[in-house]
Design brief:
It is a single chain. This protein is an alpha/beta fold. The protein has one domain: 3-Layer(aba) Sandwich (Glycerol-3-phosphate (1)-acyltransferase), CATH 3.40.1130. The chain contains nine helices and seven strands. A seven-stranded mixed sheet has the order 1-7-6-2-5-3-4, with helices on both faces. The model has no long low-confidence stretch (mean pLDDT 89).
């Protein structure tokens, strides 16, 4: 029996083509609200915009606050229409209400959590949706290599998922350091506090810097894992070195 193509599933049509006016307007309005907040309440200063690639990229930074996604979008002057994030399929896609509410603001790409080493929703389908999403209108992904929000001002160890996605999708990682969001809206707090915030955009990492042949499709899975380790190490090194200036 022929396996269904995930791109033909209407449940994910919002990722692979132009979205309805309703969703686009809400994403734009939320982006404008964020820009207002970052202008007056938590003033945002951005450094390194010259490092932003012309092509689609995976935006990656330290993660200490609820507001980090909005900060990244504002830092490159793009609305939430132009960003997607990975989300656990078993939680965010288990009913239409969640799918509707979260996609008013953010384009979520389903990914299954591993159970006993396997996934019900294949990782290849997640990659296919990511590729289609990024190909349309030069859109981007946001991925936090720490995997979750850490303690205020503390950077956790980096996981390899961001680098593996960059290699498999053949797109660059754009590293950044966010300074101050852990004070403006720390983990487990309900309300934001007026605080100055900085986003430092660093030089991008390109897959062909780590794949010797320059051809991702020619790499074995074992080789990709090794290259993902190398790419992750470089990503963590760049962000931590920048962070030492502010956190010691």
């Amino acid at each position: 029996m022929k396996q269904a193509n995930v791109l033909e599933n209407p449940e994910y049509s919002y990722l692979i083509k132009k979205q309805s006016v309703f969703f686009r307007i809400w994403k734009k309005l939320f982006y404008l609200y964020s820009k207002f907040v970052f202008l007056w309440y938590t003033p945002l200063k951005v450094y390194g915009r010259e490092n932003i690639p012309d092509k689609s990229f995976i935006y990656s930074c330290n993660h200490n606050s609820h507001m980090d996604v909005a900060l990244l979008a504002a830092s490159v002057n793009k609305s939430f229409n132009y960003f997607g994030m990975l989300a656990a399929k078993d939680y965010w896609f288990d009913n239409w209400i969640k799918r509707f509410l979260v996609n008013i603001v953010m384009n979520l790409v389903p990914i299954d959590r591993k159970v006993e080493g396997g996934r019900d929703f294949p990782i290849e389908d997640t990659l296919t949706l990511c590729s289609a999403f990024m190909t349309f209108d030069n859109r981007n992904l946001i991925m936090f290599p720490e995997g979750t929000r850490g303690n205020p001002g503390v950077m956790g160890s980096f996981r390899q998922g961001t680098a593996m996605f960059a290699l498999r999708l053949n797109v660059p990682i754009l590293p950044a350091l966010i300074v101050g969001s852990h004070k403006a809206w720390p983990k487990d707090k309900i309300f934001m506090r007026p605080t100055r915030i900085q986003v430092h955009i660093l030089k991008p990492l390109y897959p062909d810097q780590f794949i010797n042949s320059g051809k991702i499709e020619d790499s074995t899975e074992e080789n990709l894992i090794k290259k993902a380790q190398d790419m992750t190490a470089e990503l963590e090194k760049r962000i931590r070195e920048k962070g030492k200036i502010f956190y010691g």
